[in-house]
Amino acid sequence: MVKGLYTAYTGMINEQHRMDVLTNNLANANTNGFKKEGTTSQSFSDQLALKIKDYTDAPFTARGLGIINPGVKIGEGYVDWSEGPMKETGNKYDMAIGGNGFFGIEYTNKARNIERDLPGQTNIMYTRDGNFTVTAEGELVTQDGDFVLSQDGGHIELDPSLPVEVSMNGNIVQDGEVVAQIGIFDFEKTTYPDGRISYDNLEHYGENMYIPVDGTNPIEGTGRVYSGFLEQSNVSVVDEMVNMIAVQRNYDTNQRMITTIDDTLDIAANQLGRLG
To answer: Which positions fall inside the Flagellar hook protein FlgE/F/G-like D1 domain (predicted)?
Structure first.
């Protein structure tokens, strides 16, 4: 009976984690290029329950009582890499990637954080958010001022006084000449039979950015560049809301189980054991 407390408790912790992931997805439903995340659950390994210190039956020998399972534990998280819908903006510096690939960004830390605690330190990161702009000096940057990288890994410098055209292969044309090429980078990925893909060597950093792990190097991406468009998030608000309702009901069920067991223990300890 008491083991049920632990089973219900682990269920509540798991549902709380699922709720955290769902609310993060909803909070980023309008974030350009955001990829929704999900979580999995796993059962604890079955364990053999033993009766010990029973001197009336085989002294000093543990005897098996049966198999128990103490509930559920949080499994691995995953990212849904499916493409989000494209929204036309008409701004030539807004760019979306059709297919696989990421924009390369020279990201500069704006403040201290636990991962990279030196403000001003730069790292190469990758994103699907193509909401770019041009500085007064003609450098192509993100809305936060981080440099967008060309295919050869350098900064992209333009003439802000001239009109710009961007081809689908990423070439930026000004005054009839190709002045730079937007970098489209990709990484080794796993492709499943149903068409889903998984990047096992990318870690979600924050700021809608991803960073490669274990020294993984990018390869040239095959995606196409669509100037004047932005990729929206692939979060379905309706689906996430339905999932939130299911999570809340599961949490309430586990909570009621704990209350029921607690009431039963109260009766066993304070009423059944009372002397007449």
So the answer is: 96-179
